[in-house]
Specification:
Bound molecules: flavin mononucleotide
Strand content: 5-15%
Number of strands: 9
Distance between the termini: 34 Å
Shape: globular
Number of helices: 14
Helix content: 40-55%
Low-confidence stretches: none
Structural class: alpha/beta
Mean pLDDT: 94
CATH superfamily of the largest domain: Aldolase class I
Order of helices and strands: EHEEHHEHEHHEHEHEHEHHHHH
Strand order of the largest sheet: 1-2-4-5-6-7-8-9
């Protein structure tokens, strides 16, 4: 497994529309044990257009990147896995956690947890298709009546899966309520491969509590890294007993945000890049004293040069209201 477990690893969660190559690169600049690509539907990946395939773009820090595939058909899942492994992915992650109706009505993502036998056939097909480690990301179960994560995890381990991440919610919870870190322990107890706890881990203290309650081997952070790509490194520092690196502000923040913005424009092209960058810009600006003012200046601006000059001036002058 290409993840270092000497220290408790902190991983970046896959988030569709967010953890694209530019964002993963920014997170890796600060440090992360692993970053996971956005979910890619395996059939579309194999059959598809370059745009879809670019979601599997690995970038330079390929050794720290897992590519996540989703699907419900053994043939397409294994072909998709072969394709991303052939492109250099060091880990293929299997999506059994996505709650979106568009995905579950296609009977993939977390819907597979309702059909453990079929799910395990797919897992086995993917494991057999590639030489790189296959990992699995799942929820606690479909709903409170079917908390079968531990059973599926054990069977996945037997099928050759090398690590399991559990988002401590059921599918029917979507993102509501709070993640149940304690419930993740049932998965940890069922397998001997590493288990990663996920859900509502946003800083050092939530990471510590999640680890204590789940007994997991590492943590995965998603939304907590939005607008704070240094968050994983901060958590990792504290778990290693070091003082956490500081949140960026002033000119250092301006440099970083502009670097991220320029990378998105280069990756997607001007129009799409500027549009997709807006959510990231909003997240960066949210905790700043002049955030609302600056946001109003840039959020509808189509010209990248103007966005950059407003960001340079506004962010360099800003103060962070929250840590
Ligand atoms: C916008 C968004 C997109 C997501 N996309 C994916 C995905 O593609 N694959 C996946 O396994 N999970 C996906 N997730 C779930 C996250 O990986 C993670 O399990 C969840 O957000 C809980 O962790 P957090 O509280 O740290 O954000 C997504 C979550 C969000 C908010």
């Amino acid at each position: 497994m290409p993840i270092d477990f000497t220290h408790t690893p902190v991983l970046l969660a896959p988030m569709a529309g967010i953890t694209d190559l530019p964002f993963r690169n920014i997170v890796l600049k600060f440090g992360a044990a692993l970053v996971v690509s956005e979910m890619i539907a395996s059939q579309e990946l194999v059959q598809a257009t370059k745009t879809r395939q670019s979601r599997a773009e690995l970038g330079l820090k390929v050794e720290h990147t897992a590519v996540q595939i989703a699907g419900r058909d053994a043939y397409w899942m294994s072909e998709g896995a072969k394709m991303v492994a052939g492109q250099g992915a060091r880990i293929v992650d299997f999506n059994m956690g996505c709650p979106a109706k568009k995905v579950t009505n296609g009977l993939s993502g977390s819907a597979l947890m309702r059909q453990p036998d079929h799910a395990l056939e797919l897992v086995k097909a993917v494991v057999d298709a590639v030489d790189v480690p296959v990992t699995l990301k799942m929820r606690l179960g479909w709903d409170d009546e079917t908390l079968n994560a531990a059973e599926i995890a054990k069977r996945a381990e037997d099928a050759g899966v090398k690590m399991i991440t559990v988002h401590g919610r059921t599918r029917c919870q979507f993102y509501k309520g709070r993640a149940d870190w304690q419930a993740i322990q049932s998965v940890k107890d069922a397998v001997s491969i590493p288990v990663i706890a996920n859900g509502d881990i946003i800083d050092e203290s939530t990471a510590r509590v999640a680890l204590a309650q789940s007994h997991a081997d590492g943590v995965m952070v998603g939304r907590g890294a939005q607008g704070m790509p240094w968050r994983l490194a901060q958590i990792s520092d504290v778990l290693r007993g070091k003082p956490p690196q500081k949140a960026l502000s002033g000119t250092a923040l301006a440099d970083l945000v502009i670097e991220h913005f320029e990378a998105m424009v280069a990756f997607y092209g001007v129009e799409q890049g500027v549009r997709c960058a807006r959510k990231h810009l909003s997240w960066y600006m949210e905790p700043l004293d002049n955030g609302a003012y600056l946001r109003a200046l840039v959020i509808r601006e189509p010209n990248p040069a103007k966005v950059i000059s407003e960001l340079r001036a506004g962010l360099s002058d800003s103060k962070r209201l929250a840590a």
